[in-house]
Please model this.
Amino acid sequence: MKHIFVFAAAMALAAPALAEKWDMPTPYGDSTFHTQNISLFADDVRTATNGDLDITVHSAGSLFPHSEIKNAIRSRQVPIGEFFLSRLSNEDAAYGIDSQPFVATSYEDAAKLWAAQKPVITELLAEQGLMPLFSVPWPAQGLYTKSEITTVDQLAGLRFRAYNAALEELATLAGAAPVQIEASDIAQAFSTGQVAAMITSPSTGANSSAWDFLSHYSSINAWVPKNIVVVNKRVFDKLSAESQAAVIAAAAKAETRGWAMSAEEAKIKTAIMADNGMTVYAPSDALKSGLEGIGATMLETWNAKASDAAKSVLSTYQK
Ligand code: PCA
Model:
């Protein structure tokens, strides 16, 4: 018994204050630039806090499935996590505006949209005890198929991979059949014939080796959706002032770095698809106008459902 006390006392003297350990789930795999960016964020926090705050990234939905990450942070099963922002559009349309076709299609517009969206979703998330730390866009979304598509009509009847409600709506309006599939399950879904077409970034296309099961990529650049990193406010508030400052500083750095990584990624991954034999083509005017028509219908639906907060995001952006 005495030995145990002596040992415990010695440990208490020798060991520095116990490091705070945070698990951080993300739906996306290790080769995804977002995952690489949040790993660098974790490294920056560890360094700045001298190891007092130690964040471990759990990639590819290994800790929680995508659909559960937000609520896991809310209920403090994990203190922090990353997810696809527009997946929350069923809670408020303000979360989904970045996934509406042809609202913001360049990084410049996406940055402007984020500036309009951030204060509104910060308030919405605060109602759930959550605090956004940073948000990073995927490259603009393009169309992947097994043959060249020149009009929207040619999408009719195709089983279409979707990742959120907006994409499901778009596929349905095009007469296609949407199937929800997580990014990390894309290769499997195509190779088993579950789906035959998709809209996603060159990043996700190349990371899933799209050339193994698809042949054509059209840079329709329809929208620039974002991931967001969110922390539980109560857990954050319990950190020391130094650790809080370290998290905020690393988050600001991660946001800047992430946007730059995304732009790089768009170029590199499109080239990789071409190198692997995919036909990369600009959309025809007919395809563009067909998709824009669908986008206009979707925006009407969005407006009909939008809260005042959501509408204010769009009007601030459009100013
Ligand atoms: N990749 C993710 C979300 C958007 C993107 O470019 C996906 O396909 O699920």
User: Anything to note?
Assistant: Residues 241-275 form the longest helix (35 residues). The chain is about 45% helix and 15% strand.
